[in-house]
Amino acid sequence: MSNGDPQYLIALAGNPNCGKTTLFNAVTGARQHVGNYPGITVEKKEGFYQLNGSSLRLVDLPGTYSLTAYSLEELVARDFLVHERPQVVMNIVDASNLERNLYLTVQLMELGIPVVLALNMIDAAEGRGIEIDVEELSRRLQIPVIPTVARTGRGKEALLETTAKLAAENHPWNPLHISYGPDIDPALDEMEKEIIAAGLLTEMLPPRWTALKYLEADEQVLKKGRENNPELSKKLESIAHHVTDHLQKTLESYPEAIIADHRYGFISALLKGGVVKQSQKADRLYLSDQIDKILTNRLLGPICMGLILYAVYQFTFNYSQFPVSLVESGFSMLGDYMNSVLPEGLVKSLIVSGIIDGVGGVIGFVPLILFMFFAIAFLEDTGYLARVAYMLDRVFRSFGLHGSSVMAFIISGGIAGGCAVPGVMATRTLRSSRERLATLLTAPFMNCGAKIPVFAMLIAAFFPTNRATMMFLLTMLSWTAALFLAKFIRSTILRGPSTPFLLELPPYRLPTLKGLLIHTWERTWQYIEKAGTIILAISILFWALMTFPALSDSMKSQFEEERQKVLASVPEDLRDALLKGPSEGEELSAESAAARERIHAIDREEAQAALKYSFAGRVGMAMESVSRWCGFDWRTNVALLSGFAAKEIIISTLGTAYSLGEVQTGENVSLSEHLARDPLWNPLKAFAVIVFIMLYAPCFATVTCIIKESGAWKWGLFSMVFNTTIAFLIAVLIYQGGRWLGLGS
Predict the structure, then answer these.
(1) Which of 246, 278, 325, 413 has its CA 20 to 30 A from that of 221?
(2) Which residues pair with 276 in a beta bridge?
(3) β-pair partners for 47
């Protein structure tokens, strides 16, 4: 791009769902998702466009409704405009909702940036009987106004040519001046003079705009003002405080509300006099409105929502079973092959148990994630996800969350059997950083598909006559825990106001298959790329913890001697068949079968001894002094430690710890029966273990996603420490409380 051609920085700004991202893709060719859900664009996207010897560097800003820095998206967009100072802002507005969209336009113009207005979706506006006098609107705003249809490319060339021309003219920033009435204007004038005289933040911001932010109590501007000139900042805050008091006494309102009223008044006046006309067609009920009469109805809406979410669940977790089984079979065959060709030893154990099992654990999720993201993309692009958030917002807001949190909860296992990894990634639809963090920290409390086999095994052992009731109870328990712990988190470390639910329900649209596939693949690849590498490393680490230190030679010799004694008791001609197993159609004699079973028992005893001798086993025994408060011995501790890697591993580790050898999730009957007969186990301990597994640290795949999605290691560590602490306290409460009531004996 540095071939001598002039290059101009162009920012694309606009409300969510105005078609901004569609236009950005059409111009730059970038493959970015286009959804209907408000606030879906959370990252800065860049692209280049060559036009008549000049290069346009286009930056797609997050969709925002204003520049008040109320949300993360607004803060990101405003910081970019102030610090990067683009030559032109290409402001995309929804022509069918012009008055509301111009609120951001007015703020951009108050900042002084040269603006080109794109009247996007002009065809939809015309279809609704809305006529816009483009020339008159341009004359009144004194900026270029171009009608466009981003989906078809209509008006794209004219928009780019106008933008490039305006950028080449290199206009200085010229802030728009709006009157805010007799209560605010005098204070604004006074503050503006003080700011100009002291040069407070004038290198970045227009003085009047800075004064407005003091009246709006903008935290970011106040902080910068205090750092730059504490004395003047104190004086400005005093003026703002005086205005606030006056407005409270006279109008029972706040400066920000009065400022917003005057901005909308300015826009309303702007659009009068024939700039916008509506024909009788505007009064008719459109298809989206007709559909909403059912889907958002107070009675029918929740029923439809339950059915649709259930269908998503069924689609994701049923139809993904076959590809999941194919992937698992592939890794199983690979493991068997490597097991047969590699010589016994640490290298074989590392490759089979550490690497192949580790990679398989990650890749095995991929088909499920593909199906889940496809379903979510469909709901987003049709516009239904916004309706779900709207209907559940009131309930979730009472717990400090947002209506959009529900999808993350459901995907994570709200309907038992989900997966927390895509659930955490589904929090991207949340606009507020606090609500998003609270959601991604509590979504793992849901009963994911990896926990279900463990629950099923323990329920079969200790609650055999009430299996369905117990599973339903556990589902309700996970929802209750997640919501109340979210409330706790939002009341303490993530304290702050809830995001107001901006009721923008986009019209229903039929998504394109290409768009759904691109969106699905982009998100899935992020999972493979980001989670895979870290999970592989952690799987190898856990393999090492459960493998080293190995049993001493003398200890191994003892087990080998026992095996040789058993072999010696069998006639020599039967030993080979005993070790290799009977050929097809052949049966071992009773004597050989008993000897073979005895050798397997010695193998299991050796595996248990090796596990107990390993670092993980030693940690498990060291933890007994604490874990005994909830009834867990060292074997349970080791199994729970292995669950940090993946919850499914708990069953196989318990099998090893109880000398059952390799126990797979589909072959857990013997383990279930073994635990039921073990005198150290009882229904009370089993319930304490179930609740602990439900609540304690998420698996590393989920922790990795939490770190990636939150952008900070501390939240991944927090989820491990906080969840485990809560799980321990509740497990102790259950176990000790049960014993106090005389249960568990």
Answers:
(1) 246
(2) 132
(3) 58
Q: What is the spatial distance between Cα 58 and Cα 10, in angstroms, rounded to a whole number?
A: 5
> Helix 467-491 and helix 683-695: axis angle, to 10°?
40
Q: What is the DSSP letter of 551?
A: P
Q: Which amino acid is at 274?
A: G
| DSSP class of 744 | -
Are 20 and 60 a contacting pair, CB within 8 Å? Answer: yes
Helix (H, G, I), strand (E, B), or coil: what is residue 345?
A: coil
Mean pLDDT, the chain, whole residue set: 82
Cis peptide before 549 (omega within 30 of 0): yes
Annotated binding site for Mg(2+): 25-26, 28-29
Token couple for 677: 């007969």
Q: Name, in order, each residue with C-beta under 8 angstroms of 329's C-beta and a sequence gap of 6 or more.
A: none
- The single residue listed with the structure tokens 């001798």 is 613
CB 532 within 8 A of CB 634: no
Residues that constitute the known binding site for GTP = 14-21, 39-43, 60-63, 120-123
Give the DSSP H or E segment for 14: strand 7-14
| Dihedral angle, C-alpha 591, 597, 599, 600, nearest 10 ° | 160
Buried b (16+ CB within 10 A) or exposed e, 571-595: eeebeebbeeeeeeeeebeeebeeb
Amino acid residing at 288:
S
Cis peptide before 147 (omega within 30 of 0): no
Residue 311, classed as helix, strand or coil, is: helix
Q: What is the phi-psi region of residue 7: left when phi exceeds 0, alpha when psi lies from -120 to 50, beta otherwise?
A: beta
- Provide the b/e sequence for 453-468 (b: ≥16 CB within 10 Å): bbbbbbbbbbbeeeee
Tokens of 562: 């026992």
Q: Are 151 and 215 in contact (CB under 8 A)?
A: no
Of 259, 210, 256, the residue nearest 232 (C-alpha) = 210
Nearest to 634 by CA among 662, 612, 604, 650: 612
Region 369-387: mean pLDDT is 79
Cβ atoms of residues 342 and 511 within 8 Å:
no
Distance CA 402, CA 395 (A): 8
Retrieve residue 475's tokens: 């589902």
Strands of 67-107, DSSP E: 88-94
pTM value is 0.59
pLDDT for the residue numbered 40: 41
Decide if 677 contacts 622 (C-beta within 8 A): no
| Strands lying side by side in the sheet with 115-120 | 45-51, 54-60, 7-14, 88-94, 115-120, 145-147
**Quick one: which H or E segment has residue 488?**
helix 467-491
Mean pLDDT computed over 188-217: 91
Is 419 in a helix, a strand, or coil?
coil
The angle formed by the CA atoms of residues 696, 526 and 14, to the nearest 5 degrees, is 105
- Which residues sit in the known binding site? 14-21, 25-26, 28-29, 39-43, 60-63, 120-123
Cβ(397)–Cβ(497) under 8 Å?
no
pLDDT tens for 98-138 read 988 999 999 999 999 999 999 998 888 888 888 999 999 99
**Rounded Cα–Cα distance for residues 722 and 718 (Å):** 6
Sign of the dihedral defined by the CA atoms of residues 716, 717, 719, 724, in that order: positive
CB 692 within 8 A of CB 455: no
Q: What is the DSSP letter of 465?
A: G
* pLDDT tens track for 365-376: 678 778 877 887
Token output for 399 = 């717990």
The amino acid present at 460, given as its one-letter code, is A
Angstrom CA distances, 17 to 92, 150, 190, 278, 666, stand at 10, 12, 39, 22, 46
- Confirm if 527 and 419 have CB atoms less than 8 A apart: no
pLDDT for position 664? 47
Q: Whole-angstrom Cα distance, residue 200 to residue 210?
A: 9
Contact (CB, 8 A) for 195 and 236: yes
Round to whole Å and give the CA distance between 207 and 199: 8
